[in-house]
Specification:
The complex is a heterotrimer of chains A (about 425), B (about 300) and C (about 170). Chain A is mostly helical and about 425 residues long. In chain A, about 75% of the residues lie in helices and about 0% in strands. In chain A, helix 2 (about 25-40) runs parallel beside helix 15 (about 265-300) and helix 5 (about 80-90) packs across helix 7 (about 115-130). In chain A, about 60% of the residues are buried. Chain B is an alpha/beta fold. With about 170 residues, chain C is mainly alpha-helical. Chain C is elongated and about 65 Å long. The chains are: A mainly alpha (about 425), B alpha/beta (about 300), C mainly alpha (about 170). Chains in contact: A-B, A-C, B-C. The interface between A and C is large, with 71 and 64 residues. The complex binds sodium ion (2 copies).
């Protein structure tokens, strides 16, 4: 029965998407079909209640605000400055300014708890600039899609809060545990860019004259506004003035201040940034609404729960269990968003995970990385959607560009499984 | 009877698998299946995986789920009676809490009945105390404290002790405690244990201000659709779950406090001064509640105090 | 049609206003902790309501600008007549789904009113009021889809995303 349901739903989703039905509405359609055919529940009221709940939830407010912040910064000289400041430093690193995507995402990940917001904000700054300078699209889009998922792994992180509450592990420890794997992943992304650039030297735009240290330091003054903004937002989080969610509002204020300082704060800037942000957010919100409803349908149907229970019943060795779960989450991640995956499966999986003797903090980081993969796998991958909204490229093309980053994340899972200390060492150093 | 087919119910609840309420509900669901010979089976959707906490009541009311569990005092905005178990220092022991539930049950049941809900059972959380980053000798020490307020009651307590009510979502509490955005809040030792609160705060004052309850209710329409023996079996199982839940809650209270101590927290009942100060605040709030709840509330209080 | 398009524009402006409202409410939450005199009980809930209103009211104008994303791979490769047929079918499916969403959003408002559903937070708002934004926005989405359906029927679809501002980076 479960196999039949799965087949029908995946078939319906692919058909709706291929025909060109708007993605959010397609998800609503699939959820509707699933509930109407395979449950006795009243579909419409449950849909409206769930969509309302998810669309009005407080923790989500960070997303539209960060998107607005990106739209404001896009209309300032900030990205130009960012590149002018970084260019001399990255001149001799193979791949040069392609690393701005990764460095920018890693920095911004420390401010934002979501991967879509990281993708939209960093992308608004880097993509036009990289394109203007003639960097290969495949790499600039791919690295951005991949690196912006670090928003989930580097604290603060919404998904870690969800997991922490579910698994009853310390959220503070989870946050700390994410730092080393986050930097590791960023390093792997940069390594990929370096290797790729060494193999394709002609694809990277040529460098100007070799900058001296004095040049580099002089150019670094252009980084001041970006550093002030990120420092300001981080500062309000870690002094307790703002929570991680509220930091987005601080970011908007900071972006407005930068725009004012650069005399870019005109009525037109304000209007265009607002309308642009509202539409980009609305596009994502419709998909989030569809995803929330699909999650509800999955809750009623019990599919993820049944598979999770089945995996739990196999009595696997720890490494086999991790391999099986990675596969399971990759498949699930093609269709559901990260928070839904955690909420729908953890109740069933946690006993299995504990019985296998896996550390729950380690497992949390594992979950975050597989959820990061879900952000860039088609047909339902939120970073792909954000990028399609910003560039007009098709999800399939974007997914292809992001595929190497997906492979790198799988590699990261292998590394963390082989060397669990990468995760557990830092939180064990915490007091208490 | 002829309609002896198997009925499947969905039960959304808000708390995660490790919680004792959830454990009790899972046991309840198993018992129901056994007691009805498989005629009624309940799928428990824990941790807000089907509906989130604020939506559960509405979901059962409008027939999207047949049965659910809520912290009833969350709904005191709707009807002050739902908040009777959260009036500070009205009922501070398990014995009193039981008496208060017996006194208020008919009124709460009637109010929920009007909304199409039938109460099955209720189980209290361990008593609510004060978690604080610094020691508290009297209510005066709470003046200016950043006090987490998550409902009208906790906000009012903050006002009365001169603390600053601060709104922080549960998801962000840990971080807020770390950064000092919040340095005092009230909850049970159970919740403090679940969220490993000792990583941020060091003092727990077990003042037993109130014992809030989770109520399990069923949609009347779904209940009426069951045959008589199944209804009987369900009610019997619910009564067992209630007895088990109260026992479990009381037994676990001491265990939770012990865990807090083991993890380096200073746990005490609070100085006589603190208790006296808080009792005074309790009197004010009981008075305010009575004004709000009108004759119906006064009647319930009269029964309780008899 | 002109009047409808102006209506969609108005919705976009309202949505923008609600995004400012979201910002204001979150800032008020921060300010309220720093200076208790500024505290507005329930500001977190208001921020959520503003955000929801912004998202739903922007649905129709975003659709009209072709910014709700969809997979165009197959459509782009079809010959014009077939493409028109598929577009009509897709719009019909979209109308059905959006219609369902709008209908049940209206029912949500009505039920919240009938049940006296009140927010459980410090704001204690009757929920049917903020839910009006969801109902209005989804109804407008249905209207916008209907307009586009008619345009395709007449064989004159509006060009996607008029390029008067750099909403996209390309
Ligand atoms: Na982050
Ligand atoms: Na995906």
């Amino acid at each position: 029965m479960d196999l039949l349901i799965t087949g029908v739903l995946i078939g319906a989703l692919l058909l709706l998407l291929a025909a060109g039905v708007w993605i959010g509405l397609a998800l609503i359609g699939v959820a509707w079909i699933g509930m109407a055919l395979f449950t006795q529940r009243s579909v419409g009221d449950a849909m409206a209640l769930t969509i309302w709940g998810s669309a009005s939830s407080w923790t989500l407010t960070a997303l539209p605000l960060f998107i607005w912040m990106g739209e404001i910064l896009f209309r300032t000289r900030l990205s130009e400055d960012l590149f002018r400041g970084l260019a001399p430093w990255l001149q001799r690193l193979p791949g040069r300014l392609l690393h701005t995507n990764i460095l920018g995402s890693t920095l911004f990940a420390a401010v934002s708890g979501s991967s879509a917001a990281t993708c939209a904000t960093v992308g608004k700054m880097t993509l036009p600039e990289l394109q203007r300078r003639g960097y290969p699209d495949a790499l600039s889009l791919g690295t951005l899609a991949g690196a912006s998922t670090l928003g989930l792994l580097i604290p603060p992180s919404i998904i870690m809060i969800v997991y922490g509450v579910t698994a009853e592990v310390s959220i503070a420890r989870l946050f700390v545990a994410g730092i080393v794997p986050g930097l590791l992943l960023a390093g792997l992304f940069m390594g990929y860019v370096i290797v790729w650039s060494l193999l394709h030297p002609q694809a990277i735009p040529p460098e100007g004259e070799r900058p001296t240290l004095a040049d580099k330091l002089r150019a670094s003054r252009h980084l001041l506004p970006v550093l002030l903004l990120i420092g300001g937002v981080l500062g309000t989080i870690y002094t307790g003035i703002a929570t991680a969610t509220e930091a987005a509002a601080v970011g908007v204020v900071g972006a407005l201040l930068i725009a004012a300082a650069q005399r870019a704060l005109t009525w037109a800037t304000l209007r265009d940034s607002l309308l642009g942000a509202v539409r980009l957010y609305c596009m994502i919100a419709l998909i989030l609404a569809g995803a929330a409803f699909l999650t509800l349908a999955m809750g009623y149907l019990g599919l993820p729960r049944h598979v999770a229970a089945w995996i739990g019943s196999l009595g696997l060795e720890p490494w086999q269990l991790i391999a099986a779960l990675t596969l399971f989450f990759i498949v699930l991640g093609c269709f559901l968003d990260g928070i839904s995956i955690v909420v729908l499966t953890m109740g069933v999986l946690l006993p299995t995970v504990q019985a296998a003797g896996l550390d729950l903090i380690w497992f949390g980081i594992f979950i975050v990385i597989v959820v990061e993969m879900a952000q860039i796998t088609p047909p339902v991958g939120f970073n792909l959607f954000v990028l399609q909204g910003m560039t007009g490229r098709q999800v399939t093309e974007l997914a292809r560009h992001a595929a190497p980053m997906f492979v790198i994340m799988v590699l990261a899972v292998v590394l963390l499984t082989a060397f669990p200390e990468l995760v557990t060492w830092l939180p064990q150093r915490m007091a208490g | 009877t002829a309609a002896a087919q198997s009925v499947k119910w969905d039960m959304p609840i808000a708390y995660p698998a490790g919680n004792f309420h959830t454990a009790n509900i899972l046991m309840f669901a198993k018992d129901v299946e056994r007691a009805t010979g498989g005629k009624l089976s309940i799928t428990v959707h824990e941790n807000g995986s089907l509906f989130k906490a604020p939506e559960i009541k509405r979901a059962v009311q409008s027939g999207q789920a047949q049965i659910g569990e809520v912290l009833i005092s969350n709904f005191s905005n709707e009807n002050p009676l739902f908040g009777i178990d959260s009036i500070p220092f009205l009922a501070t022991s398990y014995g009193d809490a039981r008496k208060l539930w017996q006194a208020s049950r008919p009124a709460v049941e009637a109010a929920l009945d009007k909304q199409g809900l039938k109460v099955l059972y209720a189980v209290p959380w361990p008593p609510q105390g004060i978690f604080s980053a610094k020691p508290i000798e009297s209510a005066a020490d709470l003046r200016g404290a950043k006090w987490r307020a998550y409902n009208p009651n906790t906000s009012r307590i903050a006002q009365l002790v001169g603390a600053q009510p601060v709104t922080i979502q549960a998801a962000e509490l840990t971080q807020a405690l770390t950064t000092g955005a919040v340095n005092a809040f009230m909850t049970s030792g159970a919740t403090g244990y679940d969220s490993k609160v000792w990583e941020q705060v060091k003092y727990y004052y077990d003042v037993a201000a109130w014992l809030p309850k989770n109520v399990v209710f069923v949609s009347k329409r779904a209940f009426d659709a069951l045959d008589k023996p199944t209804q009987q079996a369900l009610l019997k199982t619910a009564a067992d779950a209630e007895a088990r839940g109260w026992r479990e809650s009381e037994e676990k209270t001491a265990w939770y406090l012990e865990q807090l101590r083991k993890n380096g927290m200073t746990v005490s009942k609070g100085s006589p001064q603190l208790q006296a100060d808080l009792r005074k605040i309790g009197e004010t709030m009981i008075e305010e509640w009575t004004r709000q709840a009108g004759a119906e509330g006064a009647a319930v209080l009269a029964i309780y105090r008899k | 049609m002109k009047a409808l398009n102006r209506l969609f524009d108005l919705a976009a402006w309202l949505a923008a206003g609600f995004l400012i409202g979201t910002l204001a409410m979150v800032l008020l939450g921060i300010a309220g902790r720093l200076w208790p005199a500024l505290a507005l009980p329930g500001s977190d809930a208001y921020a959520g309501y503003c955000m929801a209103a912004a998202a739903f009211l922007a649905l129709a104008p975003t659709l009209r600008r072709g910014e709700h994303i969809r997979v165009m791979l197959v459509l782009q490769r079809l010959p014009v007549p077939a493409r028109r047929a598929v577009e009509l079918a897709v719009h019909a499916v979209g109308l059905a789904l959006a219609g369902g969403l709008a209908w049940f959003s209206l029912r949500l408002v009505w039920q919240s009113h009938a049940f006296h559903d009140i927010s459980t937070g410090l704001d204690a708002t009757p929920l049917w009021i903020p839910q009006l934004g969801m109902a209005a926005g989804t109804v407008l989405l249905v209207l916008a889809l209907a307009v586009q359906f008619v345009e395709h029927l007449r064989g004159q679809p509006a060009p996607a995303a008029p390029g008067d501002e750099p909403a996209r980076i390309e």
